[in-house]
Amino acid sequence: MSASATRNRDQDRFRLAAELTHVSKTFGANHALRDVSVEIPAGQSRALVGRNGAGKSTLVAVLTGLIAPDAGRVRLADAPAPALADRWAWRQRVACVYQRSTVVPTLTVAENLFLNAQPVAAGSWIRWAAMRERAEAVLREWGLEIDVGLDAGRLSVEQRQIVEIARALIQGSRFIILDEPTAELEGREVTRLFDRMQRLRQGGVTFLYISHHLEEIYEVCDSVTVLRDGAVVTSAPLTEMPKDRVVAAMVGGDVRLGARGAGAARPGTESLRVEALSVGPVAGLSFAVAAGECVGLAGLAGSGTEQVADVIAGLRRPAGGGITVGGRALPAGGVAAAQRAGVGYVPRDRRMHGIVPLLSVAENMTLTIADRLGPGGIVLPAERDRHARRMIRDLQLVAASTEQPVGELSGGNQQKAVMGRALAADPRLLLLVHPTQGVDIAAKEALFAIIARAQVAGTGVLVVSDDLDELRICDRVLVIFKGRLAASFAAGWQDRDLVAAIEGVAAHG
Amino acid sequence: MADAAQDVQGGARTEGLRARGARLALHELTLLPAIALTIIAGAFISNAFLTADNFFNILQQSSELAVLVIAESLILIGGKFDLSLESVVGLAPMFSAWLVVRDTSIGGSGIGLNPGLAIALMFVVGALVGAANGFLVVRLRLNAFIVTLAMLILLRGVTLGITNGKTLFELPNAFLYLGSAKWLGVPVSIWIAGVLYLLFGLFLRYHRIGRALYAIGGNPEAARVAGIRVERVTWGVYIVGGMLAALAGLMLTGRIASVVSSQGQNMIFYVFAAAVIGGISLNGGRGRLLGALTGVLLLGILQNVLTLAQIPAFWIDAAYGAIILIALILARASGGPAQEA
User: Fold this and answer.
1) Is the model's pLDDT at A259 over the cut of 60?
2) Do B249 and B122 form a contact (C-beta atoms < 8 A)?
3) Strand pairing report for A476-481 and A484-490
4) Whole-model pTM?
5) CB–CB of B63/B251 below 8 Å?
6) A128 pLDDT above the threshold of 80
7) Mutate which of A113, A127, A145, A194 to disrupt the B interface (most B C-beta within 10 Å)?
8) What pLDDT is recorded for position B5?
């Protein structure tokens, strides 16, 4: 087919999809990039990893022409990069699919694909029929399946990514940067994304893949570039870079693994008991968490695990069954009642539910204990700051001051603030939903250490997640499949057994 | 894999049908039942209602509101706000009329400017006010609501100050033409409103800049990344809005053959009511002029019916407001978009 011939020509046309030579960029006193040199050969899939603040975002901004480097050279497709103001030229060479959506929710898929590049007749009048046909043709050519008449606001995260990738292809870009594309996808969607990437690569598309999930990069990338403190630590084929070497390169050999609260469980003292709970797809679920124990509740999105968490947190009424916290029945009456009963809750999406970005660190961390900060509902600032300072110290949270708006903190520190707030009221049960989503590996370890300390202090922990790292800190993992308790694993399980159970596939061997 | 792909596609297809259905399902025409109901009620209330004269009367009285609603719709679709439009309806004609009227004893300037030139100046005033709003909102990044509210208060005061609160009349014919002349037996102001709806409707639907406006209102960051000049388009829309408001002012002046210092006062409330019950989103990026037009017509017919029903003048506003609320609830219940702003 002529279409594929065109693609092969595209592929042959250049050797390097992108090339940075001695690129540096500073923001004030902060060296965001130091003398960075990277070559990405056409048709390759390159992983870009590094801790939060290592310079990944700046590198992407330089590569996509959003900021100019202070020094160094940027080349795309074997040619010097276009002038910064020439957005159109940049978009024909490179595209980035950000975590933040860049689709317009009020327009259709077809319009989003041709945003500001619609097929037009004389005088810039849009040819709607031609636009729809071309959108369908391009999607078909690349094997991407999506209805072009859909309102983009109704798309799932997966579909939105397809739209953004297709838009890049339509504009002629054959170099696509994916920034944490799997952060909000579930298992099956991730597999489909990887299949799609594979197909596009066969068509000559080059990828730069950014992810905190190191397992993923071994599935879809051939090589990896590791950034630390704005400098390239190493660029190498992944065959030469096993996971521990990548981690070591990222953190500079300064990672304390294995701070776990295993063995802190106090059988006999009960932290949480769930009795014949029915909610959403979940029917008749029963389990218990002992004081000091950490239990994982794993399942796909839609399996019902998040509804269980909602019930325990007081966000949702169950259809049936009962819950006791610390031996007392969880009173109906919402989040406040659940808090009083001893549930410390860390919600899934910290930006949506966890923090109030404009309020200070101190205010955010003491929201749950505002009633203890002074008489008669008055919040004494000194008292609040005292509590906040203690928590900041305990959690090793990095903030300029207790007065800094929490929205200015890095993701890992925001999550620490949310965790600190959950712990502030000395809960009997710590309920964590995807507690380390979107934070870097060192922050992850720090959060795990905080959880372990809470366990030692006698707090029961329930981790609702399907992230293997998060489940690994648990003493037990309960797997929910389609609303039913499908399996239970003691610590020390094999990844594939657990994943098989989560996905509802019988494990072999 | 094939399975998986089909999965996505399957889901997408059913959703697509629904979305398309919703679009065809007269999304823009959810007000038609309400309009029909009002017309039926009007027919029962008064014999004078269902006559060609009354019909033209309603359309003509709605024409200025209709033009203002176009202006506000453009700005709302682009994700902004303009409360000051109604003050331009007063200021632009007042300023021009003041320049034209010779007799200083009735509040004129004594300059006696050429009426054609004065009318041209009217549009310049509208454009300048729009440009000033655009500067404050786009360049200084001030909140559009508060900027245009302040502008509204300021310009109302200027309108009052120009003539010390006097009403200007004995205006030249050029000022009265749009409000009094007829083409093919139909008042000119109706022609103007109709043609503008057609032109701007097509522009919003079929022109790149029109679509860019929806993109800006829907997701300004995405629009910027796509190379749309967000600031320039937003600024432009404020200027066009100001000029449309000046036109509405000229039409109103022509119809009542004078300029009152309170001309256009409180119109902005009806502008928003018409746009919003017509499906223009206060959050930007959503809505069509056809829908906004049905909103204008509903309000126009309603006003007429309330007057014919001989509701005591002091109670007309209350009845009007209550019925607008009911219309909003009906529009929402029949599947219109949620208004959250």
Assistant:
1) no
2) yes
3) antiparallel
4) 0.73
5) yes
6) yes
7) A145
8) 41
DSSP string computed for A346-393: E-S-IIIII--TTSBHHHHHTGGGGGGSSGGG---HHHHHHHHHHHHH
Question: Cβ-count burial of A201 within 10 angstroms (0-12 exposed, 13-18 middle, 19+ buried)?
Answer: middle
Asked whether the beta carbons of A359 and A406 are under 8 A apart, the reply is yes
Q: How far apart are CA A306 and CA A169, in angstroms?
A: 36
Listed in order, strand segments (DSSP E) in A7-44 are 16-27, 30-41
What integer is the mean pLDDT of A24-33? 82
At A506 the pLDDT is: 56
- How many angstroms separate the CA atoms of A287 and A13, rounded? 60
Confirm if A95 and A172 have CB atoms less than 8 A apart.
no
Q: For the segment B233-286, what is each residue's pLDDT rounded down to a tens digit?
A: 999 999 999 999 999 999 999 999 999 999 999 999 999 999 988 889 898 888
How many angstroms separate the CA atoms of B276 and A200, rounded? Answer: 44
Residue A241's SS3 state is coil
Cβ-in-10-Å burial (0-12, 13-18, 19+) of A212 comes to buried
Region of poorest pLDDT, from A46-60, A271-285, B13-27, B50-64 = B13-27
Q: Classify domain A269-503 by CATH architecture.
A: 3-Layer(aba) Sandwich (3.40)
**Domain range list for chain A:** 2-118+125-251, 269-503
Best B3, B27, B202, B206 residue to mutate vs chain A (most A CBs within 10 Å): B206
Question: Are A294 and A491 contacting, i.e. CB atoms less than 8 angstroms apart?
Answer: no
The one-letter amino acid at A247: V
**CA–CA separation, B4 and B223 (whole Å):** 32
With CA atoms as reference, the chain B residue closest to A105 would be B218
The DSSP symbol for A406 reads: G
Q: What is the CATH number of domain A2-118+125-251?
A: 3.40.50.300
Q: Answer whether A2-118+125-251 and A269-503 agree in fold.
A: yes
- A115 contacts B12? CB cut-off 8 A: no
Instruction: Report strand pairing: A460-464 vs A294-298.
Output: parallel
Is there a contact between B208 and A120 if contact means CB atoms under 8 Å apart?
yes
Helices B32-45, B313-333: axis angle to 10 degrees equals 150
pLDDT for A260? 61
Spatial contact of A157 and A90, defined as CB atoms under 8 Å apart: no
**Chain B CA closest to residue A168:** B226
Provide the CB-side half-sphere exposure for A343 (13 A, CA).
33
A268 backbone φψ class: left, alpha, beta (φ>0; ψ -120 to 50) = left
What CA–CA distance (Å, rounded) separates B10 from A374?
57
CA distances to A313, A321, A334, A343 from A331, rounded to whole Å, are 11, 13, 8, 11
First-to-last alpha carbon distance for chain B, in angstroms, is 42
β strands within A184-251, DSSP E: 206-210, 223-228, 231-237
Q: How far apart are CA A325 and CA A288, in angstroms?
A: 10
Phi, psi (rounded to 5 degrees) for B313: -50, -35
Q: Which of A104, A131, A157 to mutate to test the interface with B (most CBs of B within 10 A)?
A: A104
For domain B28-333, which CATH number applies: 1.20.120, 1.10.3470, 3.30.590, 3.40.50?
A: 1.10.3470
- Whether A195 sits inside 8 A of B20 (CB atoms) is no
Q: Do A104 and B208 touch (CB under 8 A)?
A: no
Closest CA to B246 of B107, B68, B99: B68
* Straight-line distance from the first to the last Cα atom of chain A, in angstroms, rounded to the nearest whole number: 44
- Angle at the Cα of B144 from the Cα atoms of B259 and B247, rounded to 5 degrees: 30
